[in-house]
Amino acid sequence: MKRTVTILGGDERMAWLAEHLRRAGCPLRLAALAPPAPLKDRLPPTETPEAVLPQSERVILSVPAATPEGLLRTPTVPERYTLAGCLLLIPEGTEVLGGTLPPDCRRIAEERCLAYTDLLALPELQELNAIATAEGAVALAMREQNTTLFGTRCLVLGYGRCGSALCRRLTALGAKVTAAARRREQQARIYADGCIPCDINRLSPALGDCEVVFNTVPAPVLPRELLQKLPPEALVVELASAPGGCSAAEAEALGLRYRAAPGLPGKAAPRTAGEYLGQVIRSLPHWEE
């Protein structure tokens, strides 16, 4: 008999994950997660963490798991709960999956012997999320620009999964794409993929005529002295997690259009992002045990 899965918190993508698991025959309970209108009649009603977690057999936390203040991410309900408090309600030894835990919550998980899987660290989910992130970034740029992306001079910082997926889509739309990376083999791959390579430690030559910058590097690669080299009103799209590639305040003070866009899979394509989560979770070796 399949273990009941409790899905705790999260945005709309977690509701679509629940629907994916429901179709696969998994018994479900939802805590601090209200399904969107299309799923209200298919999914169980939301409950409180206090009512559900002490009886949970398997828990899937929101992705990402916590706010900067240490709260469980619960954008679909008005109630607020600390992530640490929720972890303390879960029976010791329970299997738990979710986003990356803050240090204090990681300690609680270890002390309670929770079998934790960081879903965001799984390469297969990173590959799939790069698809939704790239498409969401392109859609954002299209909304923000008063020109077509065809012929637009774009700079992509970082050439990992997300950066390379984004470059492929931009070049397919006819944008003039420069991509910056640190390692020489990455720069060779950028060239082989049809983009202009750039050393991320020598960005100055690529900034002067750049119209849109997409950053995928979670490190300050665009300090003020480099931001000053961008044309007035250039668009800077921040895709990386904190601390990001530059200071939003500095970018805006210079007249640049800064747009923070973390977590795009859940915002741009929640249904697809939920399906991807479901595919990856159900492929884990221990899931059917």
Task: Please count the beta strands (DSSP E, at least 2 residues each).
Answer: 12
Rg from C-alpha positions? Answer: 21 Å
Which structural class is indicated by helix and strand composition? Answer: alpha/beta
Q: Largest beta sheet, briefly? A: 6 strands, parallel
Main β-sheet, spatial strand arrangement: 3-2-1-4-5-6
> Helical residue percent?
25-40%
Distance linking N and C termini: 10 Å
Helix count from the secondary structure assignment: 12
Unreliable sequence segments:
none
Can you describe what's shown?
The chain has helices spanning 12-23, 49-52, 83-89, 103-111, 123-144, 161-172, 184-192, 204-207, 224-227, 248-253, 264-268, 270-283, and strands at residues 5-8, 28-31, 46-47, 58-61, 95-98, 115-118, 153-157, 176-181, 196-199, 212-215, 235-238, 257-260. 37% of the residues lie in helices and 17% in strands. Strands 3-2-1-4-5-6 form a six-stranded parallel sheet. The protein is elongated, with a radius of gyration of 21 Å. By secondary structure, the protein is an alpha/beta fold. The chain contains twelve helices and twelve strands.
Layout of SSEs?
Layout: E1 5-8, H1 12-23, E2 28-31, E3 46-47, H2 49-52, E4 58-61, H3 83-89, E5 95-98, H4 103-111, E6 115-118, H5 123-144, E7 153-157, H6 161-172, E8 176-181, H7 184-192, E9 196-199, H8 204-207, E10 212-215, H9 224-227, E11 235-238, H10 248-253, E12 257-260, H11 264-268, H12 270-283
Parallel strand pairs: 1-2, 1-4, 2-3, 4-5, 5-6, 7-8, 7-10, 8-9, 10-11, 11-12
Helix pairs in contact: 1-12, 3-4, 5-6, 5-12
